[in-house]
Amino acid sequence: MEEIRNFLESNLNEESGLFLVEFNFLKSNRLLKIFIDSVKGVTIDDCAKIARKLSAFIDENENLVPQGFKFEVSSPGIEYPLSLPFQFEKNIGRNVSLKFKEDDELQIITNLKLTDFKNGKAFFQTKKKEFVLGLEEIVEAKVIVEF
Length: 147
Hints:
- The protein is of the alpha+beta class.
- The protein has 2 domains: 2-74, 2-Layer Sandwich (GMP Synthetase, Chain A, domain 3), CATH 3.30.300.70; 85-143, Roll (SH3 type barrels).
- 22% of the residues lie in helices and 41% in strands.
- A 5-stranded antiparallel sheet has the order 7-6-5-4-8. A 3-stranded mixed sheet has the order 1-2-3, with helices on one face.
- Strand 6 and strand 7 form a beta hairpin.
- Helix 1 (2-11) packs across helix 2 (44-60).
- The model has no long low-confidence stretch (mean pLDDT 92).
């Protein structure tokens, strides 16, 4: 699977505008789940293009996974946790739910605004205070979908 991951990472980069968000092989049903994202969002065509490239790579390298498997390429969706810097940048101004570590204890804030992202640090605002967290301190950040 490492060769497949390396292939994807070499095709999903700043030049392509697409980034690998998750690479997860579910052994029980032999399914490889691949989530990709971009600054502008991911289209069905983007997913299909990567799926075709990956399929051709697997066909050329049959010995990578001798028992065979299925794979899915998709976008992470609006409720998927933010993890990459550009995901925080493109969601500035939105409300998020946040889990983070403070003094080795998990803290949870369910409704705050992501106000900025600079140099690997996310800026948040609650009704009472503003605070800053480095990406390494954030356990999970999810956009709150508002209708």
